[in-house]
Amino acid sequence: MDKKNLTIGVALLLAAIASMYFNSPKPVPPPPDAAPAATAAGEPAGTTQTATAPASAASAIAPTTMPSELKALPADRGGDEVSLLVNGIVEVSLSNYGGAIKEVALRQFSETLDSAQRYVFNQPRTGPMLALVDYPGLDQNAGYEIVSKSAKEVVYRAILDDRIEVTRRYYLPDGSEEGTDPYQLRHETTLRNLTDETLPLPQLALSLGMVKATSDNVYGQQLTSGYSDGKDQHFIEHTKLQGGGFLAFFGLGSREPTPVLPTPATIAWASLSNQFFTSILTPDQPGTGLVTRRIPLPLDPENPGPQHFGLGGETLFDLKPLAPRGSVTVGMNFYVGPKEYPRLSNANVFTADQDKVMNYGMFRFFAQILLTMMDWVHGWMEPISPQWSWGWAVIITTLILKIVFLPLTLAASRSGKRMQKIQPEMQALREKFKDNPQKMQQATMELFKKHKVNPMGGCLPILVTMPFFFGFFIMLRTAAELRFESFLWASDLAAPDTVAHVLGLPINIMPLLMGATMIFQMRLTPTPATDNAQMKIMKLMPWIFTLFCYNFSCALALYSTVNGAFTIVQQLIVNRMKDPADPAPTPAPAGGRKVKNVTPRKS
Fold this sequence. Notes:
By secondary structure, this protein is α+β, with helices and mostly antiparallel strands. It folds into two domains: 73-298 and 305-359, Beta-galactosidase, Chain A, domain 5, CATH 2.70.98; 379-420 and 455-576, no CATH class. The chain has twelve helices and 20 strands. It has helices spanning 2-22, 239-242, 341-344, 364-381, 389-404, 406-421, 423-432, 437-450, 460-477, 509-524, 532-548, 554-576; strands spanning 48-50, 82-86, 90-95, 100-110, 118-121, 145-149, 153-160, 164-171, 184-193, 204-211, 224-228, 233-237, 260-267, 269-273, 277-283, 287-296, 309-317, 327-338, 498-502, 505-508. The strands form four sheets. Strands 1, 6, 7, 8, 9, 11, 12, 14, 15 and 18 form a ten-stranded mixed β-sheet that branches. A hairpin with a 3-residue loop joins β2 (82-86) and β3. α6 packs across α9 (460-477) and α10 (509-524) runs parallel beside α12 (554-576).
């Protein structure tokens, strides 16, 4: 029985760690074979039509939209005419080549710690964002003329073969207008038929840009493309394109990297994200597919190392043929900025599910509640301690969470203490009824009843609290608010708090403190298990968790350390408390004679 319980316990522990580390939403179904796009009937002359999705979500993706591989451009081309749209939050650079967005600089986020360089999205780039991909004569290599330009708006125009006029309009609000966000611009591409005949249109592919990891230690969920089909959200992790892996040795999956991954689907919005930043394209009418690309990044000649890769992407649109003198407009909102849940959950600006780009997975509900609470605590702490306000926000939110669940954790601690006290009696029952499981179970239940022990009392209270703590853990991994925020000796709460290197190994203080609290907590906590193998595994767990979390962000280690310190104080109090469930001692008989214990006969 003990070995069975040990196996189940280890399996559940590994499952919890895997869920915490690899937790991800529903997998994306594999794309079907490409087929030619359907051609719709023409519209009457002089009408304006909008981009429409076909009835089937699995519409074909034209092969011409998928060159085998794109590489980051090493430098700008000559003769590039740059236009700027600027507000207090972003600086959008647009190019006349492709009439599209070269890059977006986020003015409130620096590229590196203590750097004056702003964080730039789509850098290095394979081409401009919102460019028409693989559309000869109108793509990123085509020169557009500027029709009009102001502080908030730029309009480009190009004519293809005297047959199609393309107008591209960009509008950047300052955030003061109702229903707008300063990180989100408005874009419209209008194609107009200049002839007196119906013109078929190829499938349009609009670039989402290119995104790279914010650090070398990038996990699957921290570099993704994604989309919403209006009901569910799907995310494609960069590891899906790199090939190889454990299963490849068994013939499952490809050993070779996948340069391009097409995904036919209804696209309510599409995104490219790293750990802290994202681009989100939200069309007025749904798109018909997403293309994800694996992009090799330029090597640094001064710091040679392994080849790193970023992710690129395009959103696809199927358009009806253009009627004589008719036009079609593909309109959309384009967000480029931080992954901030309070911002993206603003229903007055964004769609109902656009905040799901946070990619919290199955613990989304709990993570959102805790992030909202942490933001509230930060607003309260910022005037008191501006420099360390986010560190205090993590600590206070952790303490609030522990206090809220204090009755449950106290119940679990008392139950563990009672179980520890009756272990000798339980061991005696196992020996006595080792050949009669039915009587052993009956005697065990009577023992539980005598000492007022609930066998599930130590598990159920902890199971109730676990989703909140896992949600807190997942939320802290991608909180853009913590990036480059200092606390105590740590200069960046979103990175390991490395203070030195010894023989090339980093010395991270906070995970070591976390491990110390776990070891001390293990010594204080009652351990009902008497099996030697179980005891050894339990003693190893703090060391395993410390090693597992050693290179995680300082915020995660801070949360775990505070959580452990609170539990230590709680357990010290519980251990000193007298348990009311303890049976009263049997009074000695008159005359001071001791009563000899009588062992009942076996029936």
